[in-house]
Amino acid sequence: MRTVRRVLFAKPIATLEQYLDRRGGEGLAAALSMTPEAIIYRLEASGLRGRGGAGFPTGRKWRTLVENRSSTAPTTVVVNSAEGEPGTFKDRSILRANPYHVLEGALIAARAVGANHVVFGMKRSFTTEVARVRAAIAEAEAAGWAAGVGLEVFEGPDEYLYGEETALLETIDGRYPFPRIAPPFRRGIETVEVRRANATAAIGASGRVAMAGPGDSDAAPALVDNVETLANVPRIMQRGAAWFRTVGTDASPGTIVCTVTGTTERHGVAEVIMGTPLRQVIERIGGGPLPSRTIKAVLPGVANGLVTEENLDVPVSYEAMAAIGSGVGSGGFIVFDDTVDLVAVAAGVSRFLGVESCGQCTPCKLGGLALADLLAEVSLSNADERDLESITTRVTTVADQARCYLAQQHHVVIRSVLDRFPAEVRAHIEDRAAPVAPYLVAELVDIRNGVAVHDERFSDKQPDWSYDAESTGKSPADHLGKTRYGEWSFKPDLSVIPKLSDLPE
Ligand SMILES: Cc1cc2nc3c(=O)[nH]c(=O)nc-3n(C[C@H](O)[C@H](O)[C@H](O)COP(=O)(O)O)c2cc1C
Ligand code: SF4
After folding, report:
1. Separation CA 423–CA 429 (nearest Å)
2. How many CB atoms within 10 Å of residue 237?
3. Where are the beta strands (DSSP E) in 145-301?
4. What ranges in 90-204 are assigned the alpha helix state H?
5. Tell me: the pLDDT tens digits for 419-476?
6. pLDDT on residue 187
7. For residue 179, which atom of ligand 2 is closest to its CA?
């Protein structure tokens, strides 16, 4: 099996000049000679799917944005650079090696959807990547490469939900990362100034953000795309849709940047062809299991079900992973060998999702935390049959009336452990398994010399998102909802609406 280098460069590109010397910029040049419709058509033909986790067709998303443009405010492109999925380090690897092609992809997106602003939604703690992106923006502006599009970096909080796209928009707008009810597309930044009197009531923490829906508002939509998604765009414009499809599968064309961590020889990030068997991805990037150990299960982030040993040869494609009851997620694969207690893993995932839940939906926050406590008791071999019944009930109800997908993730991952490893659960209930503390499931801070560095602070994170010795007992939505996350100088120029006059009627 081979690794490829379409979006993850082997050697870092140090300057814009170096990037342009290596034929960088040709995608943007091609896009500037095309109509927005032609750009979107090419993207649709390429079959590119969003690499942020859901695999939504990128061309279709861009078209929907164009169809729902505002007549009074410009669209904004937001680069989702918030990477927080446990076991994933691919977006930061891409940005470290080459921020220019992400920037180029975002500028092409701006041309296609009629945006005059691009915002990189990053985490303040990503100091290396923030510095790289800021330097790239400064060079692009000095060279006139941004072609009149305003470029900004927004430095947000470390919360997992900050990567959820409506929460990202909320935060850029000055509030905490509390998701909005998912509409068919998003209205974004500074929406309030352009909201029509009859716009649907806001659902964000401050309750003032216009919701998206055809005809309900003239607020500007925001295009939110993942770093890796946008990094794929320049070459699709430069080389064409057919070139993009020369690798990968029909439904999952192209490549994917994967992260492998857990009980493997080493940890790392590399780009592979879509459809590569998962076992080969683990061998190539992670060096396979540790000596004399076998792989028991693989967790593709905390949004999809566990992959069991007998399914390890599943092709890494959206369709094949879904067919075995799992998913590609953001390509981060956490490997567990035969020494790992999967009930402890379930307890760790549950704690992560319970703590990171914002609490706008009671079953997700309170039910999620109760589930985490119960699973911890099972893992510590302190639980009985009644606790197991409670777990079964909680798993069924945790996603009730959920506003965003986090609660569903909780349901899916824990259900997969209960269904696929019932004997391990029973062994704890019947005191046949040794007590084990919950596994630390946390965001990655880095991968250094082949070793993943986890955010160890997460062990002290309270359900109210503080790191205090005691939690307030309130949910983040309850005790932070009335305050502002921060002021930001970002002010899009509402008077300039880029024309899409090239678009056919
Ligand atoms: C709880 C949660 C966390 C998420 N975190 C991220 C993230 O860190 N980065 C990201 O690109 N997408 C994340 N997503 C997915 C985004 O909501 C959204 O689907 C993505 O930005 C769309 O971009 P794409 O179409 O290019 O994939 C998250 C989703 C959920 C539900
Ligand atoms: S489902 Fe959970 S994380 Fe999502 S908005 Fe509701 S409480 Fe918050």
Report:
1. 10
2. 27
3. 150-156, 222-226, 255-262, 268-273, 295-299
4. 90-97, 99-113, 127-142, 165-172
5. 999 999 999 999 999 999 999 999 999 999 999 999 999 999 999 999 999 999 999 9
6. 52
7. 5
Please give the biggest Cα pair distance in the chain.
71
Is the distance from the beta carbon of residue 156 to the nearest atom of ligand 1 less than 6 Å? no
How far apart are the C-alpha atoms of 315 and 318, rounded to whole Å? 9
- Torsion sign (Cα): 92, 120, 231, 166: positive
Q: Say if ligand 2 is within 6 A of residue 205 CB.
A: no
CA of 91 to the centre of ligand 1 (A): 12
Count of C-beta atoms within a 10 Å radius of residue 322 = 14
How far the first Cα of the chain sits from its last, in Å, is: 47
What is the spatial distance between Cα 130 and Cα 125, in angstroms, rounded to a whole number? 9
52-94: per-residue pLDDT in tens? 999 999 999 999 999 988 888 889 999 999 999 999 999 999 9
How far apart, in whole angstroms, are the C-alpha atoms of residue 399 and residue 387?
19
Q: 222, 187 in Cβ contact below 8 A?
A: yes
155 CA → ligand 1 middle, Å: 17
CA 297 to chain centre: 22
Counting ligand 2 atoms within 8 A of each CB, the residue from 160, 360, 369 with the most, and so the one to mutate, is 360
Indicate which ligand has the atom closest to the C-alpha of 160: 1
What tens digit of pLDDT does each residue of 225-270 get? 999 999 999 999 999 999 999 999 999 999 999 999 999 999 999 9
Q: Does the CB atom of residue 443 touch ligand 1 within 6 A?
A: no
Task: Give mean pLDDT, residues 384-399.
Answer: 97
Q: For residue 207, with 0-12 CB atoms within 10 Å meaning exposed, 13-18 middle and 19 or more buried, which class applies?
A: exposed
Q: How many whole angstroms from 408 Cα to the centroid of ligand 2? A: 9
The C-alpha atoms of residue 356 and residue 347 are separated, in whole angstroms, by 14
Determine if ligand 2 sits within 6 Å of the CB of residue 84: no
Q: What CA–CA distance (Å, rounded) separates 345 from 336?
A: 9
How far, in Å, CA of 372 to CA of 366, rounded? 10
pTM summary value: 0.92
- Binned at pLDDT 50, 70 and 90, residue 494 comes out as low
Is 406 a pocket residue for ligand 2 (Cβ < 6 Å)? yes
Which atom belonging to ligand 2 lies closest to the Cα atom of 407? 1
| Ligand 1 pocket residue status of 229, Cβ below 6 Å | yes
Give the residue, out of 165, 223, 224, 410, with the most ligand 1 atoms within 8 A of its beta carbon, to mutate for a pocket test: 165
